[in-house]
Structure formats: structure tokens, C-alpha cells
């Protein structure tokens, strides 16, 4: 029999909390017998929310956490002061091995800061990267790092490449994932100082499948599985992806509604377009893991609905079962001893 | 009567050279009596190409330039060695005041390097930025810098903001253009070292309308008119814009063709969608100017067709008539003396 995996979920984080978070948690324990979910948040509110559902009470529990960290608060300060917040209480459970993983749709800054301050880094990890999956024409790619720690060094980027490679191979099941570094041209001599310094280091890594530079134009085509960059650039890519995607879909909708003729056509094309846009959506894979910590911390979208919360919890199970942290620890320490 | 403006065009640069370049030049002199166009390239080839058209031969001339600089060549080396290339011959005409402006769809690297090496910078300009217009939900924004000089300093970014502001106000006619710096959050304390250093400097500029940070998500919404960033980030934004736009439109087309029902609907929605996508296309504004040079150099898309070449030439006229370089010179020197 498989071991039970415990995932603690921030029930108060995100635009749709606690309703959609609760729903996602219920969905998970109804569907999977090998998962225990703990919700952190205001006990009364959560009890009321849960009362609508029928579920195994042994495997879906509440831990009272009356405080909430908002998006407007300075992350480090909030983590230090709000000891009874849904985020801090949950992170302490991961730290104390009462939970294997933590999922939050709340403040990205607080989740990142808390992950590092409370759960802590795996020995050898210089900087834990936030690594969301982004949709491409033929699947998804891992964009690593999109976190809050900017001005990275080349040694950080090399670790990102290794951790990202392990994640894509073991959690997504992509054999020998192609690793590329974001650059402004395909040639090795192109790039800023950081990229020029990192490129030869990546080329020398024997444990990753480094394919060279990737121009931003090629990212949506799925030209690499692991896309390495420092957090400022990663953040720009991630947010432009979201913004431009939303803008273009809005444009298409406006176009469809612009004439009588197109309105008629819209009725016919809508189901097909809906299916198409679904293939260009990464939420079915869950949230973005903060890699390299002594436990798993997953940041899911602020606007996540029950299904994305559910998928983020499932992602934690694969991560834990595949011993990703053990693999990261072994890989980084092996390289240090080389 | 208006003075005649002379624009020299690289007839051998780009995917559609010389055919579409010639066509764009002919279109221009047919439409406007105040513009003279000079084409640089192989004389025989151009003469043959031009023989198909009827145009005022006084205002559309050829200057023989038998060499071609390709995209594969190292830019600085190519500019130094290929003195008889269509790019170098044209840039020398701008340098010698035989032409007011230069348009090329050829090697971006060579155009940028040649612009700096041959035409030279306006006194006071530290670094000439390449500033393309990108489409937004309600018009266009100027993305400055997308050039080849990475690892910029804060003083460069301040100059980009000023030059971009002058360009948008005088060439695009946007009064008091909103200037923002690309950042990973809206707050002043966010960002990497460069952004943190630049932010207060921009805030202190009295001659621009600085509105603060812009997250990449907001760029497609047209949240600022002048978007300031260093070239590596600008390049990523520009290329992701192109790549993601193409990918999503391809997705929509696949969706429309996926079922019998949607195929029928596609016939009805196509004209409207085509109109919609046209509004999300910046080529009607011309190419990207390399600002801050002693003359105007415009880089248009490698795949530019006659219409974009035509628009790029027209853009040079507005630029020259509005004395943009004079305004840049005055602004930067005024600030130096403050």
C-alpha cells in the first residue's frame, strides 16, 4: 500500500478564497484515497464552508490560523510578524514534517520569503527558484526562475538548470529534457555579462541536456523544456505571457462580435475555439514549485479556481513520490564533490 | 513650399529584397511629391526591378553598392570591411548630409553598429537606443531600448526616457506621453539594482511624464506610451510579443479548422477577425528608429513588404520635419547645464 501524503493548503490565499480552495481540497480527497489535506485559516469560516460537502473527515482537516497576509504587505515583515497567519502556520507544518507539501494562491512574495525563512534550503542550494510551467504550441515548458530574488549569479543559473531538469524529467515525465538559456541571439558570444558567463558553465554540465540559447520568440513554440533565466527576465516573460494571451483572446472575442455575420459565425466556432484555448493553458499541471527547499512549496495562481487547486495538490504527490528533493540533494552535492 | 526630404533605402536588405523594397520606394514617390528616395544596391538588379514601374526618375534614384552584408556576419567587422555594401554606402550618405534618413530591413546588428560607427552620436547622447513601436489594445507604445548594447547604466535609461518621450510626442502626436520603467512589481522598492537606481532619477526628471513602474502584464493594455528598459529585457519583450502573437493566431486558425461546424463558422468570422488583427499590428507606423544619432536610421522588419517600407520612409519625413534630433540635442544639453 502507498504511504499517505499530506498536503497543507492555505485556505485564505487568493482571489477566490476560501470558497474555491475548500472546493479544490474536497475534490481531491473525494478522488484520491492516498492524500490527506489540511486547510489553514479561520476555523469557523472553514467549518462553515466545508459543511456543504460530503467527504472523509479523517483526510480533510482544519488547522486554525486566524491571521491573513495580504498582497499589499511587505513579505518578510509579514512572515516575521503574523505567526498565526494561514501561510506561516502551514509553512511550520512543512518544516516540522507534519506535512509533505504546501500549496498557496496567496501573496507570492510571502510564500517565497516564508519558504526560505521557515522551511529553509536544501544543503548546497544557493537560491531556491520559483519555476512555473508555461503553455507552448506542443505542451509546457518550465520557466526557471520567476521568483523575487533578482540580480542572480551564474552559479545560481547553473543550479536552476539542474533542478529544472530533474523536475521536468521526474514530475512531467519528459525524458532528457532540453535545457536552454534565454538570450538575445542564438550565438554563444551574444548576451549580457550574466549570460556570457553562464553559457560555458552550462555547456560543461554533463548531467543536463543543454541545447544552447533560446530567443524569446521561440519560447511559445516549445523549443526547450527547461528555460533558464534570472528572475527579473523570468518575471517579465511570465507576466507578458499572461498579459498578451489575455489581450489577444479579448481581441478575438471583440472581432467575433463586431459584425452580424461574424456573430453568426461565432456561434459555430465557439466550442472549437474553447477546446483550442484549453490546450494553451498550463493550469491543469498545477502551480509553480519553489524548488530547492526542505519540503515542497507550491505557488498557484492568485485567481485559481477549485480545479487548479486540486491539480496543484496532485502535483505535490508526484513530487513527493518521485523524491525530487532527494534527487536535487544528490545531484548538487555530487557536483560539489567532483 | 516644403523642402524636399531625401531618404536612402537599403534595397538589398531583408527577406523580400529587392522586390518589395523597390515597390515600397516607388509607392512613396508616386504618392508624395516632397520625398526623394535613393536606393542603394546592385545597379543592374535595381534598374531591372524599377523598369516595371512608372515613376518620377528625378525623385527615385539608384546609388550603386555591389556588396551585401548578411545576417550571419559579425556586424562591426562587416561594417568595417564591406565599404561598398548597400548599408555602408547608405550610411555614408547620411553622414555626409546627402540624405536625411536611412531605412533598412537588413541585418539589425549591422544597421546598429553602422549607425553608431559611421553616422555617429549626437553630442551628449551616451548610447543610441533602438526603439520599436509595439501594438497594444488601444494603439502603440514605444519600447526603448531593444538594441544590441546590453548591460546599460541608469544614466542611459534616463536618456532613453527623454528621447522616447520626445519621439512619441512629436512623431506620434501623443501629448505628454506617459513614461514607465519595466519592473517586476508596481512599488518603488521593487526591482533589480539597475531599476532601483534608475527609478528615483526618472522621478526627478521634470521634462517627462514619469508614471512609475510597469509590469510586463500591463504592456499589452497600453498602460504607458514610453516603456523604458535595458536592451536585454527589451529584446525579450519584443521577441516574445512577436512569437506569442504568431503562436496564438496559429492556435485560433487551427481551432477554426478543427471541426466541420467550426469550418463553416470560420467562413463567417474570417473578415472580422482579419480586421481585428490589423488593429494589433504596428507595421503601419513604420520601423524602429535608432535614436540619438546625427541623422535618422530606421530598422524595419526583416520580413517587411512594400507597405511597411513605404511607411518607414514616411516616418522619416515626420521625424525630419519635426526636428527630432534638434529637440533631443537641446533637451540633453539643457539638462547637462542644469
Walkthrough of the structure:
Two copies of one chain form a homodimer. With 338 residues, chain A is an alpha/beta fold. Chain A is 46% helix and 16% strand. A six-stranded mixed sheet of chain A has the order 3-2-1-4-11-10, with helices on both faces. A five-stranded mixed sheet of chain A has the order 5-6-9-7-8, with helices on both faces. In chain A, β2, α2 and β3 (60-64) form a beta-alpha-beta unit. The longest helix of chain A has 26 residues, at 231-256. The model of chain A has no long low-confidence stretch (mean pLDDT 93).
Strand content of chain A: 15-25%
Order of helices and strands of chain A: EHEHEHHEHEEHEHEEHHEEHH
Greatest interface by residues involved: A-B, 61 and 61 residues
Segments of chain A where pLDDT lies below 50 for 5+ residues?
none
Structural class of chain A: alpha/beta
Q: In oligomeric terms, what are we looking at?
A: homodimer
Radius of gyration over C-alpha positions of chain A, nearest whole angstrom: 21 Å
Distance between the termini of chain A: 38 Å
Q: What number is the mean pLDDT of chain A?
A: 93
- Global morphology of chain A: globular
* Number of E-state strands of chain A: 11
Give the % helix of chain A: 40-55%
The largest sheet of chain A, given as strand count, sense and whether it forms a barrel, is: 6 strands, mixed
